Amino acid sequence: MFRLLRLAIYAMVGYTVYQFITDVVHADAEASRSKSSGGGGRGGRQRAAQPMTGAKRGGGTGKGETTQDSDGGGTRHRVGRGVV
Which residues does residue 67 pair with via DSSP β-bridges, in sequence order? Predict the structure, then answer.
């Protein structure tokens, strides 16, 4: 009885190690494929669409502005297209 229980535990541990190793190998292959192909959608997998922001489009970097407070202090910040 205990031999059967020990065999079942070994099988579960072995399967868990197998799943971990295959996940690591597949993640490494995906990373190298996306670097080399530029994400061209090879292998039947397509990447999720990412929203295009002004900075990614090569848009403006924004214009420097200074905001004056009522107590006389000021704060510098950027405004305009492409400012995140």
Answer: 75
